[in-house]
Amino acid sequence: MEGKGMNRRFNVVFGLMVFAVLLASHSFAAHGEKQADKKAILIVAFGTTVPEAQKVFDGIDQRVRKEFRNTEIRWGYTSSIVRAKLARQGKVLDSPEVALAKLMDEHYTHVAILSLHTIPGEEFHDLYRNSRLFEQMAGGFKKVAVAPPLLSSHDDMVRVAKAVIGHVPRERKPEETVLLMGHGSEKHPADALYSALNQAFTELDPNVRLATVSGYPSLQDVMPKIAKSKSGKVYLMPFMLVAGDHAMNDMAGDEPDSWKSILKGKGHHCEIVMKGTGEYPEIVDVWMDHLRAVYTGL
Q1: Residue 167 counted as an annotated binding residue
Q2: Where are the domain boundaries for CATH 3.40.50.1400 in the chain?
């Protein structure tokens, strides 16, 4: 009796082992099956909490969806502060990394990332480095391609400079200064691109200048040139994706350290143009060209 009981237990255990092996074999076989290609586009920006600025993102979103009709489109905001503030308003926005993880979990195989950054600075390189990791992990994407930011070539510089000057208010007179506010990145070598763009502006129009909030050239760097202008009028325009917090406060705010207040203190009259680069179709064209190039290479 004891022998028969042992045989039964052995048969049960053996049967369970065989079942487990067959189940595992089936799982490995399924894992090894060729996965159908699924493409997606991830649009990445710093983010914004300003409702008017959000409309700029909506416009870019519509352009991408119109051209890539059969492709899944997602968004990622790099700023944790912006994401947290939006979350308190009941609006959930993913970081680029979370957005990529979700796409991977949904079995997308190829992702093109549209970077809405202006220069290839620290944020862009973080995005590039982190996104490539999703190719390297087990079960990761077959390919992730990151489109270059706005200013990535001499041709980009010329196109962007012409586009901005083309959107200066028509009533502006040639002797009146146009001062653009860029963000800047004083700790990153890509900050030098702002100086190059500033040169591109002045070659097209000697009274159009670019300064940055946290890089070179600063407002103090361009003030001597503005002081030499034959007109006391200055058009202030943001050179940023959206006319958000920097534009509203650092550029056009009433605080004593805003650009408007500083220029007024020097005797200049300021005209404010609240329009981000994401509102210029010709500039969005540059981003779209970058996206198109990497998408076709997926």
Answers
A1: no
A2: 39-150+282-297, 154-278
Tell me: is residue 290 an annotated ligand-binding position. no
**Catalytic: which of 110, 117, 183, 290?**
183
Burial degree of 69 (CB within 10 A; 0-12, 13-18, 19+): exposed
**pTM of this prediction?**
0.87
pLDDT in tens, 36-75: 999 999 999 999 998 888 999 999 999 999 999 999 999 9
Note the pLDDT tens digit of each residue in 78-124.
999 999 999 999 999 999 999 999 999 999 999 999 999 999 999 99
> Could you tell me which CATH class the domain 39-150+282-297 is placed in?
alpha beta
**Which CATH fold would you assign to the domain 154-278?**
Rossmann fold (3.40.50)
Q: Is-contact 269 233, C-beta < 8 A?
A: yes
Structure tokens at 109: 């195989």
Q: Is residue 290 flagged as an active site residue?
A: no
Cα–Cα distance for residue pair 53/209, rounded to 1 Å: 24
Backbone torsions φ then ψ of 207, nearest 5 degrees = -105, 15
